[in-house]
Amino acid sequence: FVMSMYALLRSSEMLPSEEQIEESLAGNLCRCTGYRPIIDAFRVFAKTDNALYANGSSVSNSRDGFVCPSTGKPCSCGAKAVNHNETSSESIACGERYRLVSYSEIDGSSYSEKELIFPPELLLRKIAPLKLSGFGGLKWYRPLRLKHVLDLKSSYPDAKLVVGNTEVGIETRFKNVQYQVQISVTHVPELNTLSVKDDGLEIGAAVRLTELQKFLRKVVAERDAHETSSFKAFLEQLKWFAGKQIKNVASVGGNICTASPISDLNPLWMAAGAKFRIIDCKENIRTTQAENFFIGYRKVDLRSSEILLSVFLPWTKPYEFVKEFKQAHRRDDDIAIVNAGMHVFLEEKGGKWAVSDASVVYGGVAPVSLSASKTECFLIGKSWDKELLQGALVKLREDISLPENVPG
Description:
Elements: H1 2-11, H2 18-25, H3 36-42, H4 61-64, H5 89-98, H6 120-124, E1 130-133, E2 139-142, H7 146-155, E3 160-162, H8 168-174, E4 181-184, E5 194-197, E6 200-204, H9 209-222, H10 229-239, H11 244-247, H12 252-258, H13 266-271, E7 275-280, E8 285-289, E9 294-296, E10 299-300, E11 306-314, E12 320-328, E13 336-349, E14 352-363, E15 370-371, H14 373-379, H15 386-399
Parallel strand pairs: 2-4, 3-4
Antiparallel strand pairs: 1-2, 5-6, 6-11, 7-8, 7-11, 9-10, 12-13, 13-14, 14-15
Helix pairs in contact: 9-10, 14-15
């Protein structure tokens, strides 16, 4: 908990919000007590709680805006003095010692008198291709170009692509699965693209989930609200997807290609009408709808000569809505009992709103993420009201048949 909070404070240029504090601590599990006292202790750093730590005394305006990372109390070390000629030695010492450092400061000389959160030499180091060999003929590659990835895949069709090792690590350590050749694609630019297109977003397969979160938040803030309904659903689902430590390394493509039947994101990709771009060793590219990509339990529509290149997520139109759902034993850091992605497009007809298109996809109820096709057909063309929703619930029982002893 302490190191997570330290990382948040030292990597932020502004005081964290309470939401950011809770998010930074979400990846830590505590079995001995509740989380509330821990979160309350760290709230001393939150910008919304400055007044609680002023000991009841009035604090000047120049001090209200900053809480010292060392003491957790308002001070002048982070604020500019109103009169630049009046600067106490105490504030200078405090300011020099505790000024927040951003990850973007990669000039090694600027770290001479600051606590280091990440060695600047590693940030400045030029990335090079790697090839490592291990026991039993194990080979590990780190290519830097897509062409090199495809060449390796051509030479080793059964090679496993790795980004964050969040799934492969579990398979090799606990399930005794062996991958003789592993290819790390973390530094391949073509697989790390995040770009805004005329009709939606293109998301590289190796993009980390944390980076996807940041990008979606930026797009949601900049675009019209009706265009980003699906993006908001992804942001809400990612909030409870996993702890920050996992999201920092786990990738979009890794989660998709694992094809877990309880994946939190795959039902949303399907419901939102996402398209997957796939490239083979000869650089031929094909596109498939997300709903057609998952063909069986942990099986996807990828040949041994192909890899997932990117995901295309379209804008939503006015009166088009996408919503997420997840039910788990606990809110944080837990796999879903059941989850869902839902999409509906409404059009006005004769003074009433009617369903023009609908997608309802559930996870955790079948070997793959399941489209409720009968329910979708039932919804389309009918007026949007409570009676329609009640009828859809009845129809849903025909799409999803669960035994009485099903988990959850």
